[in-house]
Amino acid sequence: MDEALTEPEIVILGADHMQAAAGIRRVALWQRLPWLADLHTPEEEEQYWRMHLLPNCTILGAAIGIRLVGVIAYGDDWIEQLYVLPDFQGMGIGSLLLDSAKDEMDEIRLWTFQRNIGARAFYERHGFTAEEETDGLDNEEKEPDVLYHWRRLPEPALGLQPSGA
């Protein structure tokens, strides 16, 4: 079956998926942002997903067939991780994952690097606004970053006619 023709399925990820989730992050991040320092081994990254993200976040994956091609970790009004394998970007997979988080939260914040122009454009297309830029001294990569924020708009009130009108 041609992966490009198959609709991705959004699935809840568990402990058995953390190595694959960490691997997606690693491939997507380093292919798109090769200038970033590689600070952690694949094993350390998997441990972070397993020991920090899994107990504290909802983690969803986008699967095409049996292949995991995208991942999101979110909770408490934050997106902690959102990555799609480079060969599968531009196919709506990131939007599906983001929409899953937006369905569950009324407000979301997230950080991305200032130089990650693709991610910034993606979030802005999805209604996020830049709220703060930093010099990067507070993140482990020491890379200038930007805080994005999204808030659900209130539902419009129904225009009910008074009775007898």
From TrEMBL:
What GO MF terms are annotated? acyltransferase activity, transferring groups other than amino-acyl groups
| Keyword Transferase tagged | yes
Q: Does the keyword rRNA-binding apply?
A: no
What Pfam families does the annotation carry? Acetyltransf_1 (PF00583)
Question: What are the UniProt keywords, alphabetically?
Answer: Acyltransferase, Transferase
Domain N-acetyltransferase per the UniProt entry, residue ranges: 8-154
Q: Which InterPro entries match?
A: Acyl_CoA_acyltransferase, GNAT_dom, YpeA/RimI_acetyltransf
Query: Which PROSITE patterns does the UniProt entry name for this protein?
Result: GNAT (PS51186)
What protein does this entry describe? GNAT family N-acetyltransferase
Which species does the entry assign this protein to? Rhizobium vallis
